[in-house]
Write a structure and sequence with these properties.
The protein is an alpha+beta fold and 496 residues long. The protein has four domains: 197 residues, no CATH class; 102 residues, Efflux pump adaptor protein, beta barrel domain (Elongation Factor Tu (Ef-tu), domain 3), CATH 2.40.30.170; 60 residues, RNA polymerase II/Efflux pump adaptor protein, barrel-sandwich hybrid domain (OB fold (Dihydrolipoamide Acetyltransferase, E2P)); 89 residues. It contains ten helices and 21 strands. Helix 2 packs antiparallel against helix 3, helix 6 packs antiparallel against helix 7 and helix 6 packs antiparallel against helix 10.
Length: 496
């Protein structure tokens, strides 16, 4: 009996395993059929989010870093702070030997005293000369002295006045010289110009500093490490997408398990060329309230230049697919003739987001209806070869000069849109008009490409407008909707 029970258990386990294998095989076959419909590999158009980011590297630093130097020469007698010390504005951080300047001040004070003594002597001479002149002037009026004596007395008085003026000037000169020496004496006390943290210290007690040509650097003080900045080097091919206010995520090797956030503060115009590679500095501000980040850390950052939410997206393989043969080339122009209607649909969604009042909505509907009637008339008429407004547009993969031709067609399209919607645009406010102009320019300048939608087992080309891409999926819009099955490749025929 025990053997029979053991055998039953073993057989039951085998049966369960077999059922699981069969179920897995059935699921795989269904998925294989879904992904390889009718000899084609396919994917599904989805609605989702697309985040586009630019990668760059940079270095963390303080928002404001102050280099403290010395304006006077001399021997350092005291260094009162060290690396990483916190300092306050006005705090004494070092001293230079003041004896030379103190001696100069004493000498200057003595010279001022001497000049003042000379002034008093000159003033006494002036009083005597003034009295002598007055006496001789009175005698001269009575014709008791010669006129020449009066002239000599006047000259002596004027000379005495000049000596007084000279003595007063010498006093001012010596006083100014003494004040200059006092300023240099005050500069022998080195104070912190800001509140911050000492990053570097370049002096030791007993060292002599010479400030004859330029101020020697003594300390480097970071003003506030609770807020820091990163200077990223962004490639010229990506700089056009970077704007102030964009979010930035970054990591540092010192903290591999943490993700930090910042914001683009400034896009600088001072380009740098290194080995024929042009980069632009982008300044990112970072909140470092917890003091985790340190100056000098190298960071790897991603600037979020675009985040599209709730858009149609498709795998990039669908945009790369081109069917064998010439069927696609013949069908592409026909598919592209729906481009005008698709753009009108996109503009209708843009208008819906402007918050239009009834009069504005009526003006938009009137302009749209006029375009649709013109399109209907063109489609009913015999279609000539070549490009036309809202029609075939530039053929995909055209010949030489295609880029210039497409630019001309886009400009004509933009001009026609501006004419058709001029009355509607005049009804908009300044903010609405700006948003509308950006949307129209974006739609007209958008890149278009064919994708192949699987309909009844056969690929049908559809021209779509291409938007943001994260490298794996790409935003699309046009005659396509979520759930549509599009071709990404062809399955190799089975071996006979």
């Amino acid at each position: 009996m025990p053997r029979n029970r053991s055998s039953l258990r073993r057989n039951g386990a085998i049966a369960v395993v077999a059922l699981v294998v069969l179920a897995a095989a059935a699921w795989w076959w269904q998925q294989r059929d879904a992904g390889d419909a009718g000899g084609y590999r396919t994917t599904i158009v989805e609605t989702g989010d697309i985040r586009v980011a630019i990668s760059a590297t940079g270095t963390l630093s303080a928002i404001s870093t102050v280099t403290v130097g010395s304006q006077v020469s001399g021997q350092v007698t005291e260094v009162l702070v060290d690396f990483n010390d916190k300092v306050e504005q006005g705090q004494v951080i070092a001293r230079i030997d003041p004896s030379t300047y103190e001696a100069q001040i004493e000498q200057g004070n003595a010279q001022v005293a001497s000049a003042r003594a000379q002034l008093r002597q000159a003033q006494a001479s002036l009083r005597n000369a003034e009295l002598d002149y007055q006496r001789k002037a009175e005698l001269g009026a009575a014709q008791l002295v010669a006129k020449s004596d009066i002239d000599l007395a006047r000259a002596a008085r004027d000379q005495a006045q000049a000596q007084v003026n000279s003595a007063q000037a010498q006093i001012r000169q010596q006083a100014a010289s003494t004040r200059t020496t006092q300023v240099n004496l005050d500069r022998t006390v080195i104070r912190s110009p800001v509140d911050g943290v000492v990053l570097t210290r370049s002096i030791e007690p007993g060292q002599t500093v010479a400030a004859s040509l330029q101020a020697p650097e003594l300390f480097t003080i970071a003003e506030d490490l609770s807020k820091m900045k990163i200077e990223l080097a962004v490639d010229e091919s990506d700089i056009g997408q970077v704007r102030e206010g964009q979010a930035v995520g970054f990591t540092a090797d010192a903290f591999p398990d943490r993700q930090f956030r910042g914001t683009v503060e400034q896009v600088r115009l001072s380009a740098t060329t290194t080995s024929n590679v042009v980069t632009y500095p982008v300044v990112v501000t970072v909140d470092n309230s917890d003091g985790t980040l340190l100056p000098g850390l190298t960071v790897n950052a991603e600037i979020e230049v675009s985040k599209r939410e709730g858009v149609l997206k498709v795998a990039n393989a669908a945009l790369r697919y081109k069917p064998a043969g010439n069927g696609a080339q013949a069908a592409t122009p026909a598919a592209s003739r729906r481009g005008g209607s698709g753009m009108l649909d996109d503009l209708a969604r843009t208008a819906a987001g402007l918050g239009l009042d009834p009069a504005q909505q009526q003006a938009f509907d009137a302009a749209s209806e006029g375009i649709r009637q013109r399109q209907a008339a063109r489609q009913a008429a015999p279609r000539p070869q070549g490009n036309s407004m809202f029609g075939g547009g530039p053929r995909m993969g055209g010949g030489g000069g295609g880029g210039a031709m497409q630019a001309q067609v886009r400009q004509r399209t933009l001009d026609r849109f501006q004419q058709d919607f001029a009355a509607f645009r005049d009804t908009l406010s300044d903010a609405q008009r700006k948003q509308w102009d950006v949307a129209v320019a974006s739609l007209v300048g958008a890149t278009r490409a064919p994708i192949y939608k699987l309909v009844d087992g056969q690929p049908q080309p559809v021209i779509v407008r291409i938007g943001a891409s994260d490298g794996t999926t790409t935003e699309i819009s046009g005659d396509i909707q979520a759930g549509d099955e599009v071709v990404t490749g062809e399955r190799a025929p089975a071996a006979g």
